[in-house]
Amino acid sequence: MSTAEDVLVSRPPRAAFGKLLACDARLTWREPIGLVLGLAIPVVLLVVFGTISMAQHKAEPQLGGLTVIAVYIPILIAFSLGMLALFSLPRALVTYRELGILRRLSTTPLPPSWVLAAQVVINFVLAVWALIILVVGGAAAFGVAAPKNPAGFALAFLLAVAALFAMGLWIAAVARSATAANAMAGVLFFPLVFFAGLWYPQQFMPAALRDVGQLTPLGASVQALQTATQGHFPPAGPLLVMAAYAVVFAVLAWRSFRWE
Predict the structure, then answer these.
(1) pLDDT grade, residue 8 (50/70/90)?
(2) Which residues have CB under 8 Å from 68's CB, separation 6+?
(3) pLDDT of amino acid 83
(4) pTM (2 d.p.)
(5) Interval 83-104: pLDDT, tens
(6) Could you tell me the residue ranges of all domains in the chain?
């Protein structure tokens, strides 16, 4: 089985990183945790909520005049990012540590940090594909309008990626095993998706719960993405919340990460 150890360290750095990235991509395809969690499940939920929306044939006043599926597209994007960042990203890195791959790489000219970069790139590509599938699928199958403020939408998406991936790297830094990483991810993920509105849209929540939710990375990302979808640039509040999570957890991950 190809692993990061297959990289020929005598190659120039750019070629070595490309080889590493290709090896990790093949492993991702063989063990498609990210493909299932980050792509398949959100697409299934898109079909479910889209079918509900089509059955109702109307916008909901309680949802701000939006259809069910229009509300759920940003939620499903945040859901996909949470799955990739908290489950897929840490699992590979913690497994590499358990197998001793990171320790052995640290004795070669190949920077072990490239393993982190490769996993970030792979999961970011999956996140972009999820975004495309959900937005295009929602428009083609269920008539959901494309984001009316593309710049604001892109900024909200990138900040959500930064915040959630930083949390995933922190899990990878402190978890002692893949089992522990999955447990930590579950403890974080399920409350976060509640505040993001997966089971109970934010529009239906009491004001106090909605305010708390908008201080979480998923709740803030949904608010920012939904605002941009409707044609407005996201307000500063959710953008700053996501930026703060990105900085704090990136620092925690950097200070806590160990290669053995």
Answers:
(1) very low
(2) 49, 52, 53, 56, 60
(3) 93
(4) 0.86
(5) 999 999 998 888 888 887 777 7
(6) 21-256
